[in-house]
Amino acid sequence: MPFLYKIIDQSELVSSPMKPTKLALIICRVLWLVLLAGITPVKAQIESPDKSPKISENMAASFGNADSLLRGLKLAYNQAVQQNDPLESAGYLKKMGKLLFETGHYPQALDNLLRADEIYRKKGNTDLLATNLNLMGQVYYRSRQSSLARKMFDEALTKFTQVQNLTGVAEIYGRLGHLYEKEQAYDSAFIFQHKALASYQKVGQYEGVAKIYENLGSIFEDLETYDSAFYYFNKAYHLNEKKGHMKAQIEVLNNLGDILRKTGKYRQSLEFSRKALKLAIDKKEHYQISGAYNDLGKAYNLLNQNDSAYYYVALSRSYENQIYSEESNMQIAMLKTLYDIGQKDVMIEKLTQQQTVQNLIMMTVGVVILLLLIVAGLVISRQRLKIKNEQILHEQKNSVLQAKNELIEAELKNKTLEESNLKQQLETKSVELSSYTLHVIRKNQILADILSKLNELVKEDRRDQKKQMKALAGQISDSLQDERHWEEFRSIFEQVHQSFFDKLKEQSDSLTSNDLRLIALIKMNMTSGDMAILLGISQDSLRVVRHPLRKKLNLQQGENLSNFIQSI
């Protein structure tokens, strides 16, 4: 501690041999009036938590470490976010909010608490949500937004009641009572403080019980019912003493000293103020040290011991200046830390945006690649399907072609068989034709011989045989000229030589039946003698018949009749 002052006892002041001169007394009185003007605001600052919030025990022990603690909490929060642990990150947001609240940075504190509130609501953690709502209510209260503070406290009370957290319920009752006290709604303040007292007593939370006793004493002090105020402050004092809550005891001792001073018991108030001062010095509570010095200065002033009053008020002002300096340094460090964190957040946000854009680009590239792969897969699949279909179609064509080939082969076989049959039939018909022709030749030859003999007999002029022989010769001659044999011959001939006569008529339409017979016999490569027998004429007559036939067929000089007929 930079300031080492000896605590001046009242006895030392009384027995002091110092007798100030008139000039010294005037100077002391002027200085006293100047310092006394600062007593009221100093005390107001210390007594009123609404105007200058006190730093928590942890923060008070480490004013210079608040910025480092904030950096550590921010780092832990970032790690929790990276590990995708929402409840852990919300916990660090709440701790940062509490730290910023206790160091007087209310907007930043509220921002962190609101972010934690959103996470707790999403995760449905009622108990942690209620604790966070309690802190938000305190921030709104310190920011002089009582309606919002009450709203937060009411919701926190509902949540604590749902999870049956009686300690949390008791704390909210106490805060609501304190809020109503500052609004001078003392009936409501008493109701909630007594509810808080009952809840703390039910769970055996004696530190909370002592705090509620202190709150009740504060209400009675506001109402200037000092006996009741002293009663509750005294109960808080004995309970803290019994449970060893020495830090809380400092404020209770100061309150007891205030009540005694306000009731004119100045020397008794000095006793409690000195106890509070000693305990504050032991616990290094700078706020309480400054407050105790200020209370001592007031008491000595009321005892008309202005030199001692001046001395203690000067000490109070020194501590106040030290606190202000330390708080200013802390505020500067915290502001710098907040600025650094803000700059880092901006940088992180930019990097996050860049990473997001990069991820988006990578995702887009990935999607494009995936689409290309899908398209390539589809193309390959379609190509394979096309090839497969082509193979199937090719196989089908091959099958059809094979079937056609088989059908063609079958048709060829059938045609071959048919041709073979036709050849056999042709050979058969040719044999039949040849046989028939030979038969006709033989018959006609026999008939011709008989006719010749008959003609000879007729020439012998036997009267008795002549008539009969003439009749027989006519009958034979008719037989040789019989058209039925030629029709039968023609039918067999056309079976062997199909459409021959039709094609022949295309060459000339003036051919007679005798011409056709001669041409058929020439087609069969018969000799002139056989043709003469079949036609029933002499070979000389046959040669004569050939000449008009050549003309009818429009044959040129030197062109062979037999070759022409064979070519048809």
UniProtKB/TrEMBL annotation:
GO MF annotations, alphabetized: DNA binding
UniProtKB keywords: Coiled coil, Membrane, TPR repeat, Transmembrane, Transmembrane helix
Transmembrane domains' residue ranges: 360-380
Superkingdom per UniProt: Bacteria
InterPro entries attached to this UniProt entry: Sig_transdc_resp-reg_C-effctor, TPR-like_helical_dom_sf, TPR_rpt
GO biological process: regulation of DNA-templated transcription
Coiled-coil residue spans: 393-427
Residue spans of the TPR repeats: 210-243, 250-283
Protein name, as recorded: Tetratricopeptide repeat protein
Lineage: Bacteria, Pseudomonadati, Bacteroidota, Cytophagia, Cytophagales
